[in-house]
Amino acid sequence: MKSVGIIGANGYTGSELVRLLAFHPEVELQFLYSRSNAGMKISEIYPDLISLCEMTLTNQIQEVDILFLCLPHQESRNWLTENPVKEDVLVIDLGNDFRLENNFQDRNFIYGLTELFKNELKSAKSIANPGCFATAIQLALLPLTKEKLLKDIYTTGITGSTGAGQSLQSTTHFSWRNDNISAYKTLTHQHVDEVLKSLNLSNEKEIELHFVPWRGDFVRGIFTSSIIKCDLDLNEIQKKYCDFYKDAPFVTISEKPIDMKQVINTNRCAIHIEKNNETIVVHSAIDNLLKGASGQAVQNMNIVMDWAENTGLQLKPIAF
Amino acid sequence: MKSVGIIGANGYTGSELVRLLAFHPEVELQFLYSRSNAGMKISEIYPDLISLCEMTLTNQIQEVDILFLCLPHQESRNWLTENPVKEDVLVIDLGNDFRLENNFQDRNFIYGLTELFKNELKSAKSIANPGCFATAIQLALLPLTKEKLLKDIYTTGITGSTGAGQSLQSTTHFSWRNDNISAYKTLTHQHVDEVLKSLNLSNEKEIELHFVPWRGDFVRGIFTSSIIKCDLDLNEIQKKYCDFYKDAPFVTISEKPIDMKQVINTNRCAIHIEKNNETIVVHSAIDNLLKGASGQAVQNMNIVMDWAENTGLQLKPIAF
Amino acid sequence: MKSVGIIGANGYTGSELVRLLAFHPEVELQFLYSRSNAGMKISEIYPDLISLCEMTLTNQIQEVDILFLCLPHQESRNWLTENPVKEDVLVIDLGNDFRLENNFQDRNFIYGLTELFKNELKSAKSIANPGCFATAIQLALLPLTKEKLLKDIYTTGITGSTGAGQSLQSTTHFSWRNDNISAYKTLTHQHVDEVLKSLNLSNEKEIELHFVPWRGDFVRGIFTSSIIKCDLDLNEIQKKYCDFYKDAPFVTISEKPIDMKQVINTNRCAIHIEKNNETIVVHSAIDNLLKGASGQAVQNMNIVMDWAENTGLQLKPIAF
Amino acid sequence: MKSVGIIGANGYTGSELVRLLAFHPEVELQFLYSRSNAGMKISEIYPDLISLCEMTLTNQIQEVDILFLCLPHQESRNWLTENPVKEDVLVIDLGNDFRLENNFQDRNFIYGLTELFKNELKSAKSIANPGCFATAIQLALLPLTKEKLLKDIYTTGITGSTGAGQSLQSTTHFSWRNDNISAYKTLTHQHVDEVLKSLNLSNEKEIELHFVPWRGDFVRGIFTSSIIKCDLDLNEIQKKYCDFYKDAPFVTISEKPIDMKQVINTNRCAIHIEKNNETIVVHSAIDNLLKGASGQAVQNMNIVMDWAENTGLQLKPIAF
């Protein structure tokens, strides 16, 4: 059994980790850290955790084997500065601090898109867990980078309200968001650079990603559609996708249309490709809190620890 | 007072016309035609109509000044063949029969995108009312055609369940659609030709529209985002939009981000333009049953009859 | 034309009044008062008001014929103390300050449940507009008080998120409220006294109302079901209801089951009565912001001003 | 490993069993029976099952240790007549055929409300799994029957659309149900008899249950509030509830208000009790497809097989 600490356990991704790790057979939750809610039971904040996890949030750090950082973006760096972590502790950061600049202190953060860097992750001591939209878009496009044909990508993605975190905002007010759709950070979403960094690894031309994110009127989930000019035959493309993901237990290449809800409450990504004339569209769907955050973090931990990749991730889909 | 008949009054767009015309000061509903529900009161099918309209559906046609056809697509042609209509009757077809081929019998159907063909509509006797997605996309892009710069357009649009009509389908089952997103008719939606016909009118190059429609988990509304390469300065673009729509009471060019719900239960279209580097994105939002169908049909009737354009269309927004 | 001022125009009920009065043929909006948002256009807060109402919120009061108070509960009293209003101004308070204690300054506030006090309202100068749940429950039960048979009433009601106002709260966070149901103020809701005051007017026995309010996962609307022991025959009961409401244009007694959405975006109340053995259940549905607040306020204004009761209230139902 | 067959695997409760048993460590799915969809993979009907269960539906029956019947109500009897089952096979019926009349063929069906009949279930060979509303209401009230004080119970309950099954109906059409509330089977719901049978077991007076079920605008879940006259002190009541459920791992007596979503995608029931004057209200919440159907069926199987009660039921809550 490995011991685990979660920094920022009172947030959405932190509490989702608790939901996963409470049933993970190889780890034990050692402490749940929260500055603002120290002293409260986490099940008081998230009553779904009653009887699952009756731990009390603390502002005291203990020694553990594995540390998950679930802090607001750009706070992990400070936290690690103020709270030095022994070098043999596996640190998995769910924030965006180390996704683009991956060296900090003596640590070299491996980008935790499991399907792209599985080999590198096996020996990782520090992992920068990808963003939710970044995960959905990269999984949809990675097999095409091998073809070096990607140039202009036009992507629209829609995300649930949990993507915006638990703070109260006008755009997460129920009276506003219910039955509503809106765009935000048009062409300037922070995940674009994260996606391009991966896509450009094996692509010879400079890729442009034109990404329009939308706020959806649902709580969990991401759905994206990427439009790309491409000469390849559809069967050929599908074959390349199946090859690329042949060892990826959580990625499904579907010959039939997909819908977002088929992956909700799972760590899976569903992908569907369509073609018309010289244009292809790749659709992808994930649960933003699982494959898009805490689920992928557990998947990465499993890889590092040499446990079966799906340990603790055999989740009953919500389905309906 | 002009007399009105509605063919297919028992469907979504037909009943929405009833909701509008019940309060229209210049017209009187003469008969509501339905083959399948003849003999029933329309308020039995739509109980929101109780006390608003207590008419009984009939399969008998009467003489009227204005006839709205609200039949399933490709049934208007047959209906007109079987039920000859006097030539001085204003016929407004909400189906897609006459949008691309506009001559039938002795009638020449004017395409009823009010903001584009207001002059032609003034003397029309036959109107092909545009499709819902086609309206939202055209209104978003028309001012750019004047610039003759449109070439490749990448559009994603999302529509409410009323866009799929009242028949029971697996994709309109509540257990499936709630909290769900999915794509359909990717790159092959029937409204693409309708849009291109208008856009190419004043555009010298051949335009390609790559359109990905999504099913949304809401009932009313359409939201679209179109990505286009464009050199023009944003202020310049906004000015062109304001100029283009200066006489259009139902189109708003918003300098601030828009959300879909701000136009629900109104006949309005809200448009917002953003630019980053050489790429612009135009967002548009309409109520698919109003500006996207029955509302625009009433607007067109008003134009033909020389009534104020907003007669019967001063609708309280749902807002929340 | 009468001039109107709205105090607290930036809230839900205040802005809903703007939506109604913008199209009301007999009144003119003179000023929209807001302390916190003075200087902003109301359409910046509620973009659905763009082109409907381009007024700027002010903290200056002007003389008007009619004044609507849309302040948080228990703030109307203070406001009237600090801002004396001439005695011939019609004051309609949408808060709960004067519902139970109806004398203040020289004003005698008439309880504005239109269907119960229409005669008294005709000569009113001050009106205490009823609460939303109070309206739905009273309209469901008033005809039975005549029978003096009401004793124990067991009511469950569910309300949309707009009932909780526009402030950000954990229970109006989209991530929490979507797909969720919960109870609040069980047996202690502030509207119970308001209901009992009316019901006891013509009932000889002491009535007990056991009311359990629920938070619903929708934005607009109230649905209530009241269970009562009652010996009367169902037909007889229905007849009494129809008699009681024979002059009430906004109340429908439905022989068929009702659903909440049939009254959304209207000022109507739908009522349906069922009986099994010695027990009856009365269901009622209203739009909480219209018949439950701003719509009824306009209805009351119409009564006082001797305008047709439905002036400005011929609203297109949302239907879907 | 025990072998399992599911009759009617293509329905909601059948497929939910597949989701649970796919990860259950003590059983192996042997065959999934469906008359109408034989030959199709179940993951074609429910794409969330891709990679979880790639079995093909069959109309051939095989020998198994455990048989779940997930047929429409009143079809289990016929099925068992036409398809004799060996007497040592554990049969768990999720329909309502044997809940009230529990003898059929040589089988004596034990009513499968686990918390009430755990001892009897240990040696059961045939189980009549309770209805969803019946489970939620009984769990809320059972501890009070010991007090023999229950007399008149006034219950309102709300259920998700999955309670109505997968067939397409006007009341499960998304355009109708979204944002809508309605009552059905007022005072006559079929679960009333099921509840009363249990409540009357240890209650000396005749109990009347006045139950009003509502259709909710969500997919999963049940929330109920029962109003009861009761003299006992609240602390005393809570203590009785805690005692009654002290060995029930899936029932939580919460001192804080509960919300429905806290139990969604779990097998748990959350209960909260409030008191005002001489009236108490008991609220309960379950996932209708889990504790209200397939989850409880697995729990009962575990009891019979002497496996840990929560085997295969340690489910990650959906939480958001």
Largest interface, counted by CB within 8 Å of the partner chain's CB: A-D, 41 and 42 residues
**Percent of residues in helices of chain A:** 25-40%
Question: Can you tell me the CATH superfamily of the largest domain in chain A?
Answer: Dihydrodipicolinate Reductase, domain 2
The main pleated sheet of chain A reads as: 7 strands, mixed
What count of structural domains of chain A? 2
The protein's oligomeric status is homotetramer
Domain Semialdehyde dehydrogenase NAD-binding (chains A, B, C, D): 3-124
Active site (chains A, B, C, D): 132
Family (chains A, B, C, D): Belongs to the NAGSA dehydrogenase family. Type 1 subfamily.
Protein name (chains A, B, C, D): N-acetyl-gamma-glutamyl-phosphate reductase
Short description:
Chains A, B, C, D: GO terms for molecular function: N-acetyl-gamma-glutamyl-phosphate reductase activity; NAD binding; NADP+ binding. The first copy, chain A, is of the alpha/beta class.
Explain this structure to me?
The structure is a homotetramer of 320-residue chains. With 320 residues, chain A is α/β, with parallel strands linked by helices. Chain A has helices at residues 12-21, 42-45, 76-82, 114-122, 132-145, 174-177, 191-199, 234-244, 290-305; strands at residues 2-7, 27-33, 66-69, 90-93, 103-104, 107-108, 110-111, 126-128, 152-159, 182-183, 208-215, 222-229, 251-254, 269-276, 279-286. Chain A has a seven-stranded mixed β-sheet with strand order 10-11-9-12-15-14-13. Chain A has a six-stranded parallel β-sheet with strand order 2-1-3-4-8-7, with helices on one face. In chain A, strands 5-6 form a two-stranded antiparallel ribbon. The first copy, chain A, is globular and about 60 Å long. Chain A starts with a strand and ends in a 15-residue tail after the last helix. Chains in contact: A-B, A-C, A-D, B-C, B-D, C-D. Chains A, B, C, D: It catalyses: N-acetyl-L-glutamate 5-semialdehyde + phosphate + NADP(+) = N-acetyl-L-glutamyl 5-phosphate + NADPH + H(+). Chains A, B, C, D: It comes from Kaistella flava (ex Peng et al. 2021). Chains A, B, C, D: Keywords: Amino-acid biosynthesis, Arginine biosynthesis, Cytoplasm, NADP, Oxidoreductase. Chains A, B, C, D: This is N-acetyl-gamma-glutamyl-phosphate reductase.
